[in-house]
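Justification of resources, computational component.

The compute hours requested in this renewal are based largely on the per-chain cost of generating structure records like the one below. Each record pairs the submitted sequence with a full structure-token output. That output is archived, and it is also reused by downstream analysis tasks.
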Amino acid sequence: MITLAKAKNMVIAGDYINNPVIITTGIPQIIINFKGKCVKLDYHNVSAYELITDEHRKSAASGVARGIVGGTLLGPVGMLAGGLSAKSKGIYQVAIEFKNGKKSLLEINDDIYKALVKSCFAPAHANHSHSKKPSKKSSKLRKIFLFFSWTLVALLLLLLFFAFSSSPSEKDSVSDEYIAEIDSYNAAVNDTWDNVVNTYKSYDSGEITLDDLMSSMGHSNQTFIMTASEIDKAEETTYSRMVGEITDLYYDTTINIMNFLHEGDTSSLEDLEHVPGQIIEKKSDIDQARDKLIK
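The structure output for this chain reads:
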């Protein structure tokens, strides 16, 4: 049975290296962290992009081509970095130049590539600015609107104050179904972390290659991201917040491992030294928070 190669769906060279690439609301984006920080791959942020072909690789390897989009995009080293020899159907390697000057090389699947092409197509009106000076009438209306807006904000704050001052305890406000839901997220991220650890052991023992390890960790990080997104949608309790925090820790640790192995970034080792103790502490916090909900 032939197993088809899968796209890593991540940045494989340049800025944001090792960060996952996903689609949210139809727009591809590079996930930076669980705090909601991301870089959208659309015409607002991307100045140019180019699909890397065999012709590009040969030119870069021979030193003839100096770049892809205007000047040097990633240079010959970046173009030939990890996994660029992949020719499997449905795997695309795309060089991105951002409007802020940063440059990245992505390995993405067919769905993300199609979304990228669509998102980077700027509508005709996007390049036109409107500098018409507002009239006195519109300025007066704006002041009235601001007055009512601040009044509404003040009323909402008062309502929130009274709501929280008389809110029930967490135990009274959540159901057994809610606890089971957060339990499933907790189990999912812990299983994914176990997979990260076991995959690294396989690499350390020589059973798999570095490319296999990086690909597996990239898929694990996508699982962390998707699970964290589901946790954010659930009602927030101490239990859900603690599960979100350990998911964040697992994600950051996996990124640090990838940076150390792929980039030789020794600064990542300082963060990794404290991880075992942090995991034990957070698992204890999770157990305590869950116990308070079920008692």
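The chain has a mean pLDDT of 77. The two ends are 51 Å apart (CA to CA).
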